[in-house]
Amino acid sequence: MASSWDRATVDALLTTTRSVRRRLRLDLPVDPALVRECIELALQAPSAGGRQIWRWVIVQDEVVREELGRIYHEANADYVADLRRRGEAGDAAALRSWRSASILTEQMGQVPIIVVLAFERHEWWGHDPYGEASTYGSVYPAAWSFQLACRSRGLVTCSVTAHVQRGDEVTAALGLPSHFEHACMFAVGHPDGEKFQPARRSPLDEVVALDRWS
């Protein structure tokens, strides 16, 4: 049976949802009701055992955003410095990454809304490969759904994880219960311009095998 979906629209959504750092407007407020709508859609994402272990914190308060920005800046500083060193040494890919990452590292605390995604790890999901796969496999589908929902509503996002290195500070800033862990943090805003293109990716045959690796 043929699908009734507008495939071109769906494909465009999937291929043009980018991590936006340089083109994220700081001067245009974001309606928190719109963000809540996107999270409500993300709650439909699959999770292991049907458990919704995720918790979402929408941060609008200027003081809290600045504190999260400080934590992210300090957690990401070494990575950004390394990108710059490699870029100045002739690594073109590192230079491109530095130009992008350094902007959000400096501006995270100024973005209109920050969304923090945390989760409650159940005791039967340990810190072994199976437990990690079950845990994060129950969180990141919702994270991607959130980003797609934002994109479809004219918002852009960037998911970051450097703050996880300072999870205790983030927990304190947000007043989260101590038994929650951090998955990622989203910068959310309006884009500076509307044109987004599919990213450069490896050819399909370089990343896909049939039946066996070789």
Describe, in plain words, how this protein is organized in 3D:
The protein is an alpha+beta fold and 214 residues long. The chain has a domain at 21-61 and 111-192: NADH Oxidase. Helix content is 45%, strand content 14%. The protein has eight helices and four strands. The chain has helices at 7-16, 32-42, 62-88, 92-107, 129-136, 140-152, 167-174, 204-207; strands at residues 54-59, 113-120, 156-160, 180-189. The chain is globular, with a radius of gyration of 18 Å.
Helix content: 40-55%
- CATH homologous superfamily designation of the domain at 21-61 and 111-192: NADH Oxidase
Instruction: Tell me the distance between the termini.
Output: 34 Å
What is the mean pLDDT? 92
Low-confidence parts:
none
Strand order of the biggest β-sheet: 1-2-4-3
Largest sheet: 4 strands, antiparallel
